[in-house]
Amino acid sequence: MRLLAYFALSVATAISSFYIKNPVVVNMTAGFAVGMAIPIFDETCRNWENLRHIAYSIRFTKVQVRVSTSYLFKIKVDGKYLLIRGNRYRNQFQPVGGVHKLSPQGSAALASMGVVDDDLIPVDPLSSGDIRVRVPGRKLVSFFHWFDSRQGREDSPWREFQEELISSGMLSVENFPHIMHNYVRRDVDKVRYSRYADAWEILVADVYELIPTPAQETELRCLASAENHDIAWVDAQQIKRRGAVPGQAHSIDIAEHAQRIL
């Protein structure tokens, strides 16, 4: 890692300056040591998540950490965001998306790390292959290195879009034979203790933004104007307030993770 090399070089240079008698050379080595602060800072920023995971690996060496990774769609038309009723939690609305799936290659890679399925949600045909797992703390760095490689796991948000909006009949396959989307960012939450899961956990979410064609945008507007109890079109403030609208009766519950698409 370049960060370690820069840091070691800086420390070695700083220490050597105490043993050098020539003032000119001392000034040069001291200046070099100070100058190394810039690349050290730059590399620290670049590798901040890796450094955090290294710290977690040390902290949770003998503990399993629950890791759940997902992807979410930001679908926005005329200032309103499309949310869909949850499959497991039918009383709440959330962005289109879901948990990443594993391929057989990915399952083998995780098994070699000692990663096991999470037992919080029963494994059934719907959840089979989800990257909702328990990772040995000492393997967190290896797990995220594997995840970042994108090998052996789902690397496209198309599946959930197709299942939730097209297969369900909400949108037509004629106008949505394929989609264009932008990758917005990845949120990797700090480790936290979840009483619900009775475990330390890290949540990861990739956020995508739908870039509709004119025909697709027209159909989305038609969907927004139609009465459908399984979807909701809401503004940013309503998402932030978890569904509440000042001065109105609370009509829908919005999942907390919906704020990731804002």
Task: Please describe what this structure looks like.
This protein is of the alpha+beta class. It has two domains: 2-46; 63-261, Nucleoside Triphosphate Pyrophosphohydrolase (Alpha-Beta Complex). 36% of the residues lie in helices and 23% in strands. It has nine helices and twelve strands. The strands form two sheets. Strands 1, 5, 6, 7, 8, 9 and 10 form a seven-stranded mixed sheet that branches. Strands 2, 3, 4, 11 and 12 form a five-stranded mixed sheet that branches. Helix 1 (2-16) packs antiparallel against helix 2 (23-35) and helix 1 runs antiparallel to helix 3 (37-46). The protein is globular. The two termini are 34 Å apart. The model is unreliable at 3-7 (pLDDT under 50).
Key features?
single chain; 262 residues; alpha+beta; Nucleoside Triphosphate Pyrophosphohydrolase; 2 domains; seven-stranded mixed β-sheet; five-stranded mixed β-sheet; 9 helices; 12 strands; 36% helix; globular; disordered N terminus
